[in-house]
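Illustration: Replication termination factor, putative.
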Amino acid sequence: MGGDGGSLPQRVDLVRMKNKKLKENTGSLGYEKNTLVTINHNKYSKKELKEYYFNHCAISQEALKEPFFCCRLGFLYNKENIFKLILFKKQNKKKRKKDFYDKFSHIDSLKDLVLCKSKLNEEKKLICLISNEIINATSGAICLFSCGCVFSKKVFNRVNIAKENICVTCNKKYKPSDIIEIGIDDESVLEEKKKLIKKRKMDKKKDMSHEKKETSDQEKVKKKKEITATNRN
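Result:
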């Protein structure tokens, strides 16, 4: 975050707090610390807030820029901020801050994200890969987690009438659970999604542990047979 190119991010650089936004350092070389300033969300309508989510990084609240990622909760992230987030979490495992880890507890590595294939126009607005139109709050936004293609929700529903579960732009197959709506602002819905993501991770770990145990047992049986055969000879 400093001008030397080698400093580590501070908590203020990564944590997105309620009614707060990041004020960039004002030093010409970045020597001053970033600070949080209060903002009034009441002056923004739900429509304006939704469009804000379409075009801003969920971590830093900076304008979105290519390349950017999407998580299974439907938040968008600038690449550099995601790398800083993952590094920050790895380096602070023993010093967990509740508000920080609750917000991004679903992200442990790049496997929890998909690199979006959608483009931004000159005004840094999200563009639908099918219609090439700007995605807004009225149209809604969808990201396919299987491939990273981003569409207007309205257009996606119209062209996906056949329900073949094949992306219309890259022809990659996807599951219904791969359809991620971008910009959901309902806390209860987000909490349910977090629980589902956590359950999937735990189930995956159990499956991997079971497979590892089976492989180990098979190797033991094979080794035992080899020893028995050697003794007979």
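Reading the tokens back as a structure: Residues 46-184 form a domain with the Herpes Virus-1 fold (CATH 3.30.40.10).
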